[in-house]
Amino acid sequence: MQLQSGSTLYNTSYAIRTPTYDGPITDVTTEYVACNGGPNPTTPSSNIINVVAGSTVQAIWRHTLTSTPSNDATYVLDPSHLGPVMAYMKKVTDATTDVGYGTGWFKISEQGLNVATQGWATTDLINNAGVQSITIPSCIANGQYLLRAELIALHAASGTQGAQLYMELSLPGAYGQSDPGILINIYTTLTTYTIPGPTPFVCGAAQSTSKSSSTSKATSTTLSSTTKTSTSVAATGTGVAAVYGQCGGQGWTGATICASGKYLCLSAMLIIVNVCHHD
């Protein structure tokens, strides 16, 4: 987990509340959905990164803190963890100590499903070496903010708490367990997908708390997508799938009994920034 601002690439975990465990948050109703914690304890940071309003920064995702292309074939993310990628901000008095959860969050970017290719934002993230480009709104006030990069893995999302959120509105409160972008079977050809949470904040426009409209294409066209081919072959496998593993869908020949329980997987990267404007 790293941030690049302008030409400066900061060290791994610099100004980031880094989880000490790489597992997901699976319950969107808990306070941990905002900033990790609970099952994913975080390490505090006293560092702050200065960013310019209107500039684009890059949040860099890694499978683990030590993952590299040479030692981890899935050094960005397991390619089966398909889903949307988003970013949020929250203005705070002291970004190094603020608890994070609660009101004040606003979404600043999102990317979901390209229905033409069936390519997900997480696949684009992998193809882009884990780099999530985030534009800081040009109109927001100077001061300290929490910048929250987020991805949601939907490979086990056909049951409640099946989507996996890895880290506005209030967090928790922005997502419901039965929201169409949270409770979904991605192992079929989808004709639409509703990205969880509100529509992104736009300078000069009223902030909406409504859910993002279904997308017919990915919101970013600068990254490549992969095409997913569907078939009509019936599932023939037996046995119980692993937790978070696939347990059905067109063409699936593996285990067809889903693990008991309800699973959701969210990952979030919480970055401490100070926003300023050029004179």
UniProtKB/TrEMBL annotation:
GO terms for molecular function: cellulase activity; cellulose binding; metal ion binding; monooxygenase activity. It comes from the Eukaryota. Keywords: Carbohydrate metabolism, Cellulose degradation, Copper, Disulfide bond, Glycoprotein, Metal-binding, Monooxygenase, Oxidoreductase, Polysaccharide degradation, Secreted, Signal. The keyword Secreted applies. It comes from Monilinia fructicola (Brown rot fungus). Lytic polysaccharide monooxygenase (LMPO) that depolymerizes crystalline and amorphous polysaccharides via the oxidation of scissile alpha- or beta-(1-4)-glycosidic bonds, yielding C1 and/or C4 oxidation products. Catalysis by LPMOs requires the reduction of the active-site copper from Cu(II) to Cu(I) by a reducing agent and H(2)O(2) or O(2) as a cosubstrate. Its EC number is 1.14.99.56. This is AA9 family lytic polysaccharide monooxygenase. Has a modular structure: an endo-beta-1,4-glucanase catalytic module at the N-terminus, a linker rich in serines and threonines, and a C-terminal carbohydrate-binding module (CBM). It is found in: Secreted. Its cofactor is Cu(2+). GO terms for biological process: cellulose catabolic process. Residues 244-261 form the CBM1 domain. InterPro entries: AA9, AA9_LPMO, CBD, CBD_sf. Its main location: secreted. The keyword ATP-binding does not apply.
